[in-house]
Amino acid sequence: MGQVMARRFAREGAKVMVAGRNKDNLRNLADEIDGSSCGCDITNQADLRALVAATLDRFGKLDVAINATGYGLLKPFLETTRADLDYMTAVQFTGPFQFFQEVLKGMADSGSIIQISSATATIMLDNHAAYMGTKAGIDHVIRCIANEYGERGIRANSISPGLTDTPMTSEAFQTPAFVELFRKEYPLGRIGTVEDVAEAALWLASDACFMTGQNLQVNGGLTLRRNPRQKEIEALLSSSAT
């Protein structure tokens, strides 16, 4: 999702710094879009500080910052361990919180902060509580940033996709019946794409966007309905195996 957004922004003329833990992939992407890359683990505040410094050193300013990290843990509530919670919180709450802190220090008196959230921060999905809770929590932090930093001309918003075909969900997309079980809950009749998210991010980043502190539900109307329950998913997978 982050890679698609980087390519989309570059096509519009943005100078893009891509960051993450896989330095080889980052360098290849940066070369492709005529941008720059910086190795960064979002759970490491020193890395985050270095990322912002590298961006300012390379481009002279920081206008837009997007966090697209996620850890797709699916685990029953009572089986979720302290280790699971610690890692999930580091990746999806503490890390993003500190990322936004560093970004705000480096951003001039205008700009756009964008958090990639999830429809499940609003509607339910079984066995997903740690993921959902941390996404919902950082969405509220986004609202706090919007409230406190609007006077500096800085906007902060979230984007909430539904089920999207990404490396994190690639295994699920190998079962067409599984995808169909979800698809029928989308009023617009299809599963979302990473391109949908990139287009939304581009608008949120633009000067034409008069919006802040909002959660943009880019999920084809999924939140008007629901995700399938776990028992429905298990019944589907069981019938597919026989």
Automatic annotation (TrEMBL):
Molecular function as annotated in GO: oxidoreductase activity, acting on the CH-OH group of donors, NAD or NADP as acceptor; quinone binding
GO BP: any one term: fatty acid biosynthetic process
SUPFAM superfamilies: NAD(P)-binding Rossmann-fold domains (SSF51735)
Keyword Chloroplast: no
InterPro entries: NAD(P)-bd_dom_sf (IPR036291), SDR_fam (IPR002347)
Keywords, comma-separated and alphabetical: Oxidoreductase
Pfam families named in the record: adh_short_C2
Homology family: Belongs to the short-chain dehydrogenases/reductases (SDR) family.
Record protein name field: Oxidoreductase
